[in-house]
Specification:
Order of helices and strands: HHHHHHHEHEEEHEHEHEHEEEEEE
Strand content: 5-15%
Largest sheet: 9 strands, mixed
Radius of gyration: 21 Å
Number of strands: 13
Number of helices: 12
Distance between the termini: 36 Å
Helix content: 25-40%
């Protein structure tokens, strides 16, 4: 899928990317005013806003400013679009990814970014992002020659075959749906929120020069890891299914539907505001037709967290994936020794 203004702003993560571009503008009067306005406008829209605590002074005399989405939009409109270098856009992308949540209502900033008031402001950013030459790889398919797996800190590597893991995934999903169906009336009950294949399967992303695999940085709701083991792999032979937008995800769900209404009804309802039947792909069935499945960056930005209508089947969403991530249903071979990587601030380097 080619990234356009409409496809970028149709997805919650695409909108958040555009908002983060403006929030990353170097400090100045316009940036400070916009940061203040966005913060208070988002606070009013956030269902999980928490409580304001006063460190000093008279808390009783403090009144939270009332900032409307229109006022936040006006402040953001005065912020100039910065030079969209590859490093700058990658930072904005990593923020949009890290702030993804699918087990609770969206953050106030995400609600704000979806308002009609912010649409014109984000359109000018989306136009600049879509036209930036440095994002050409965001729309590409899996890059077979540069794949690498990431193993966080001391997490053990799986020793089970992909075939076993896919079969186990289906059995666990059936059991989970059966268990949650017994408690269908509990509107507070949380559950699994991801729509991925088994996390124990081999997973990889492309490596980009000295920065290492993008999977080191593009992680949803990251846990703040400071070390990782990276293993270059030789991609297995066979077809790789490409998820490059909502249409390809919908086609996969229709071809191999797996109902997950019982387990996802609350978490995806909170995240999207939609009630009804939910479906995701039957990954054990998908494993029978392909060696892997890849989610491009463009596919992620336009699809992750978005309600994807499936007609009589209900709806689906992409949750729990990292941009450019490939899940492999076939065994992978290591092509080089495992490497140790460490993080200093926001930068990963090979130890």
């Amino acid at each position: 899928m080619t990234l356009s203004i409409d496809t970028l702003l149709a997805g919650p993560r695409g909108r958040r990317l555009c908002l983060e571009v403006l929030r990353l503008v170097p400090d100045g009067p316009e940036a400070r005013d916009a940061a203040w306005a966005v913060s208070w406008a988002a606070q009013a829209l956030d269902e999980n806003s928490g409580r304001m605590v006063s460190i000093a002074g008279d808390a009783a005399s403090f009144t939270e400013p009332e900032v409307s989405p229109a006022e936040a939009a006006a402040a953001l409109a005065r912020v100039p679009i910065p030079e969209l270098s590859e490093a700058f856009l990658f930072t904005a992308l990593s923020l949009a990814v890290d702030l993804a949540t699918y087990w609770q209502p969206p953050f106030g900033e995400d609600v704000l970014a979806a308002t009609e008031d912010l649409r014109p402001v984000l359109e000018r950013v989306a136009s600049a992002v879509a036209g930036a030459p440095v994002i050409e790889w965001w729309g590409s398919g899996v890059e077979l020659d540069t794949q690498a797996m990431v193993r966080w800190e001391n997490s053990p590597a799986s020793t089970r075959s992909p075939e076993e893991l896919s079969a186990q995934w289906r059995n666990e999903q059936v059991a989970e749906e059966t268990s949650f169906a017994r408690q269908i009336g509990d509107v507070r009950l949380s559950g699994s929120w991801w729509s991925t294949p088994s996390f124990a399967l081999p997973r990889s992303t492309r490596a980009r020069g000295t920065a290492g695999p993008v999977g080191l940085t593009l992680v949803e709701d990251s846990w703040g890891w400071t070390s990782a083991r990276v293993r270059p792999i030789a991609a297995p032979d066979g077809d790789v299914i490409e998820i490059d937008g909502p249409e390809s995800w919908a086609a996969l769900c229709r071809r191999h539907p797996f109902p997950v209404t019982a387990s996802r009804r609350n978490v995806w309802g909170w995240a999207t505001g939609r009630e009804g039947m939910w479906v995701q792909p039957d990954w054990a069935a998908v494993a029978g037709e392909a060696a892997g499945v890849h989610l491009s960056v463009n596919g992620y930005l336009s699809t992750a967290g978005r309600v994807i209508d499936l007609g009589d089947l209900g709806a689906s969403t992409v949750a729990g994936w990292g941009p450019d991530e490939t899940f492999w249903f076939s065994p992978v071979e290591h092509s080089a020794p495992e490497q140790e990587w460490v993080r200093d601030g926001d930068t990963w380097t090979r130890a």
